[in-house]
Write a structure and sequence with these properties.
heterodimer; A: alpha/beta; six-stranded mixed beta sheet; B: 72% helix; globular
Chain lengths: 305, 369
């Protein structure tokens, strides 16, 4: 479990993080969203004990990170955005070195990297890390974050350099570790990525947490507050019956009523589908036109900012 | 556990050093110059020993007044010390200039510090790894030097072995001084290139510029010229006065001793002593700022059998000795010798301590964003 209590960080009089309070329970995949400069990386650096907060505190499994950094770091697996390794060492040697810093003996290190390297698709790669691509380093970073079998995993922009297969592997790994009851924090500005894996989300804007909750609730809330209208396109095999809904603004049918364009205040596609099903109308297509999820969040950042 | 983490870091750093191409290259050069220096030194030693033996035979003559001093085995190390000043400094710099900056560049520092290690364990581990690699390199050089001595049939006695050990320790301190300077700049700079440039600048200042400031011309500019012998004493001696820059003090000291009771001679002697004291003070002050000068003073004292008060003028001025304080120490005890170079050894210890302290403070406050 992670608790952030009135966390603030100031650099030269500028507040990078401002009075951040949040709680992330065990087994949760928490997506930390926000535009560049929102304070995501600063929050994560405080969480992993690399910088000290100006005010407030971070608790990991009940332990204050600033007061007991060594014990906390023992329980954390961290992958920074710009993940770096020792270029003259192989993946195995890098992981063995880091494993020994966790107090693991050589045999345990060997066992762990033998399990983890195939998991991240780096099994059998013999060259030194200096010869790795960015994506390979990121895969190794994920293996490093899991090396000490941590109860809390913190990933900063984890898919920035991954290929599609790497992204799919990463999602699978993250879901599996969350199922084991571990807490995962994923920081990203890529909404698509966070929406795919996270079970709850916190949105940071200008150092403040402007929204927090489950992914579905937050998306609904954002949609409700969005000033934009939703346009829905319907295409059917049978004539479309008359339809009414409180959020409906207008509906325009084509000449045979096999197609319609609905303008509504919210996304009412579910209700439209139910209505058509009740009248036995065979559906060809039902699509929404309007702001993408990313655009909606972007407008949210701007409103919040 | 804390010690274990420290040694894990030190072990990695040690193997990083000994496997690195730059270390092996400079270490190879160091070995070659040490062997060449030893062979040259042994040839010189044998020559001096022959001369000594010849003088010993001649001394049987009642007319002989010259008492030669038996050459010390330590003189063999003299040329090694000359090479070591430069190559050792370069080795220390090469090992330290990118220790922290390389980690900043490769972004491995952030990931390293996210592990359960304290920052002081990281910087201490890095320093310890470097010290072990340096000590290992120097140990091999010393071993080969001793082996070369034995191959040529020269067997040092107990006292000489102690002085060889002192030579090894101060050589290590010299290299470690430049290692500590490089480590500090590596901590202070974000890029290894900048750290290297600034370390080289400091190396040039400390090993060339500062010793230059203690040469004859600069010294005389600061404290004034050497007092000249008063005319009345010259008249008594019937010696034509010579330019002070020609280092005529030796002539005076040997020929005027019989005139010691005269007031003129006492006054001159006092002025001369004051002059040399000032000169010595200036040299000592400058030596505090230069590990190279300290090292040269110590090794010169050990290898030449001249006391620690000897002035060593490097950087083109050659070696000049203070005629008023020169003392043959061929028969002096080791304790006496060490006592005379103690200040230099302390000054040499001070350098790595100060710069390592600065590196430590800088690293503890390093922003790892």
């Amino acid at each position: 479990m992670i608790q952030l209590e009135h966390l603030s960080k100031e650099y030269n009089g500028v507040r990078a993080v401002n009075d951040l309070t949040a709680e992330i329970p065990d087994g949760e995949i928490f997506g930390l969203l926000g535009p560049n400069g929102a304070g995501k990386s600063t929050t994560i650096l405080m969480l992993v004990g690399l910088i000290e907060p100006s005010a407030g505190r971070c608790l990991v499994n009940g332990l204050d990170v600033a007061r007991d950094p060594i014990t906390v770091k023992q329980q954390i697996g961290y992958m920074p955005e710009d993940v770096g390794f020792y270029p003259s060492l192989s993946a195995e040697e890098n992981l063995t070195y880091f494993g020994r810093l966790y107090g693991m003996d050589i045999r345990t290190c060997t066992r762990r990297y033998s399990e983890l390297l195939p998991l991240v698709g780096l099994d059998g790669v013999k060259k030194d890390v200096g010869g790795y691509s960015k994506g390979m380093r990121q895969r190794l970073g994920l293996a490093k974050a899991l090396l000490n079998d941590p109860s809390v995993i913190i990933l900063d922009e984890p898919t920035a350099n991954l290929d599609p297969q790497g992204v799919a592997d990463y999602r699978q790994i993250i879901r599996n570790v969350a199922r084991e009851g571990k807490t995962v924090v994923v920081s990203s500005h890529i909404l698509e990525e966070v929406s795919r894996v996270s079970t709850s989300v916190g949105i940071l804007s200008a150092g403040r947490l402007v929204a927090q909750g489950s992914w579905q609730n937050l998306a609904r809330d954002i949609a409700a507050h969005s000033p934009c209208h939703v346009t829905i396109h319907i295409e059917t095999q049978d004539p479309i019956p008359e339809f009414s809904h409180p959020d409906l603004i207008s509906i325009a049918y084509d000449h045979e009523q096999h197609g319609a364009v609905i303008i509504a205040r919210s996304d009412i596609r579910d209700e439209v589908a139910d209505h058509l099903a009740e009248h036995g109308v065979r559906l060809r297509g039902l699509s929404r036109e309007g702001l993408s999820l990313e655009e909606t969040f972007l407008s949210y950042y701007q409103v919040a900012g | 556990m804390a010690g274990k983490r420290l040694f894990t870091i030190a072990e990695k750093e040690f193997f990083d050093h000994v496997r690195s191409r730059k270390f092996l290259l400079i270490f190879g050069i160091l070995l070659v110059v040490a062997i060449v220096g030893m062979i040259g030194g042994i040839a010189e030693y044998n020559k001096s020993l022959d001369q000594y033996n010849k003088h010993q035979s001649a001394i049987q003559s009642p007319l002989s007044s010259y008492m030669p001093v038996k050459p010390s085995i330590l003189s063999v190390f003299s040329s090694v010390a000359t090479y070591l000043v430069f190559v050792g400094g370069v080795l220390g710099i090469a090992m330290g200039f990118d220790l922290v900056s390389k980690e900043k560049e490769s972004k491995s520092l952030k990931i390293l510090l996210s592990h359960p290690v304290y920052r002081d364990e990281v910087i201490n581990g890095k320093a310890l790894g470097g010290i072990l690699a340096l000590a290992g390199a120097l140990g091999v050089v010393l071993f080969i030097a001793l082996a070369t001595l034995l191959v040529y049939g020269i067997v040092p006695d107990g006292n000489e072995l102690v002085l060889i050990a002192v030579f090894a320790v101060v050589s290590f301190l010299l290299i470690f001084s430049y290692f500590a300077i490089a480590l500090f700049l590596s901590t202070a700079m974000d890029e290894s290139g900048s750290a290297l440039i600034y370390t080289i600048i400091i190396f040039i200042v400390l090993s060339v510029l500062v010793p230059t400031l203690s040469n004859n011309t600069v010294t005389e500019f600061v404290i004034g010229g050497q007092p000249e012998l008063p005319q009345e004493l010259l008249d008594q001696m019937q010696v034509t006065p010579r330019n002070s820059s020609e280092n005529s003090a030796v002539v005076f000291s040997t020929k005027i001793s019989a005139q010691g009771s005269s007031d003129a001679w006492d006054r001159f002697n006092e002025r001369m002593n004051t002059y040399w004291e000032k000169r010595q003070a200036m040299h000592d002050t400058l030596a505090l700022l230069s590990p190279t000068m300290n090292y040269e003073s110590i090794t010169s004292s050990i290898t030449n059998g001249i006391s620690g008060n000897t002035l060593v003028m490097s950087a083109g001025s050659g070696m000049t000795t203070n005629a008023f304080s020169v003392s043959r120490t061929g028969d002096a005890g080791i304790g006496d010798k060490l006592g005379k170079i103690a200040a230099n050894i302390i000054a040499l210890l001070l350098f790595p301590s100060v710069f390592f302290g600065l590196a430590y403070i800088r690293f503890m406050r390093l922003d790892v964003r």
